[in-house]
């Protein structure tokens, strides 16, 4: 049995699908997961990763665990306790969804500090481990759905600064491979897309997939900050804007780890847009 936490998320959803398609026995864990939201044969269980005891029954008899830091709730999690319960239940392999920022922004409390604690807990768990460190997701573009649907416009800061954003499906497929094979034990994979993608170019890719023009409005940092503070804590906002506006050399580097893990290149943003254009219509 493979237990997937965050099973309804951008990575968890395609991961559950990939594992089920491969014939693996899967338990999909989330605060809100419903039986009709997962592929047939997948077991579902509601649990809260900020309460390790709520995971005990899901992990009992499991062989592998997919763990991630759940974004805004990460500071409430106790990864060492989760891993102790996993070991007691029989888990011998863990795949951690971390962040590239753990390495590139080590002094950031939101990206480096919390992420480092998760990484260290996994490394010291006594389990076989694999750590995935993706950069920004292609699917962050879903934040533009309301403005595209309502006004065929996208507003974003740093319009001509490119980052090698990645398709969550690629992350999920690397995770699926690592959860099912010892070949990835002890690996830290930095996962990026195959090209630098600017907000302006992503808007153009969405317009092409939509078949209609989409206007692009470049925000100032202050405008973007005000908007992001509506749903993100200030430390996360500041580090995110630093990455978007002044990426480090490592954040600009295009990794080949997707190809190394899967034997194929990562998907481009244009490929993601073509497959996910329906909500933008």
SSE blueprint:
Blueprint: E1 2-5, H1 12-21, E2 26-30, E3 43-46, H2 56-59, E4 64-68, H3 79-89, E5 93-97, H4 101-104, H5 109-123, E6 128-134, H6 145-151, E7 153-157, H7 168-180, E8 188-191, H8 199-210, E9 215-219, H9 221-228, H10 234-245, H11 249-252, H12 257-262, H13 269-275
Parallel strand pairs: 1-2, 1-4, 2-3, 4-5, 5-6, 6-8, 7-9
Helix pairs in contact: 1-7, 8-13, 9-10
Please describe what this structure looks like:
The chain has 281 residues and is of the alpha/beta class. The protein has 13 helices and nine strands. The protein has helices spanning 12-21, 56-59, 79-89, 101-104, 109-123, 145-151, 168-180, 199-210, 221-228, 234-245, 249-252, 257-262, 269-275; strands at residues 2-5, 26-30, 43-46, 64-68, 93-97, 128-134, 153-157, 188-191, 215-219. The protein has a seven-stranded parallel sheet with strand order 3-2-1-4-5-6-8, with helices on both faces. Helix 1 (12-21) crosses helix 7 (168-180). The chain is globular, with a radius of gyration of 19 Å. The protein starts with a strand and ends in a 6-residue tail after the last helix. The model has no long low-confidence stretch (mean pLDDT 94).
């Amino acid at each position: 049995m493979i237990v997937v936490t965050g099973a309804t998320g951008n990575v968890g959803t395609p991961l559950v699908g990939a594992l089920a398609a491969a014939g693996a026995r899967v338990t999909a864990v989330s605060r809100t997961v419903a039986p009709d939201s997962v592929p047939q044969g997948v077991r579902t269980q509601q649990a809260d990763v900020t309460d390790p005891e709520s995971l005990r029954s899901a992990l009992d008899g499991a062989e592998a665990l997919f763990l991630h830091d759940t974004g805004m709730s990460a500071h409430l999690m106790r990864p060492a306790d989760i891993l102790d319960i996993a070991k007691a239940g029989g888990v011998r392999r863990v795949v951690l969804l971390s962040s590239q920022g753990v390495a590139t922004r080590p002094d950031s409390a939101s990206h480096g500090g919390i992420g480092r604690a998760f990484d260290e807990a996994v490394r010291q768990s006594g389990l076989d481990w694999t750590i995935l460190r993706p950069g920004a997701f292609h699917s962050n573009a879903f934040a533009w759905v309301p403005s595209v649907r309502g006004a065929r416009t996208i507003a974003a800061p740093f319009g001509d600064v490119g980052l090698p954003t990645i398709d969550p499906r690629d992350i999920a497929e690397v995770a699926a491979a690592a959860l099912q094979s010892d070949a990835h034990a002890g690996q830290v994979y930095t996962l990026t897309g195959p090209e630098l993608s600017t907000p302006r170019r992503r808007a153009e890719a969405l317009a092409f997939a939509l078949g209609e023009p989409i206007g692009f409005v470049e925000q100032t940092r202050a405008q973007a900050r005000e908007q992001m503070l509506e749903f993100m804590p200030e430390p996360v906002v500041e580090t995110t804007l630093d990455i978007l506006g002044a990426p480090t050399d490592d954040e600009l580097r295009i990794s080949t780890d997707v190809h190394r893990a899967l034997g194929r290149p990562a998907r481009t943003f244009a490929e993601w847009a073509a497959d996910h254009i329906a909500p933008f219509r």
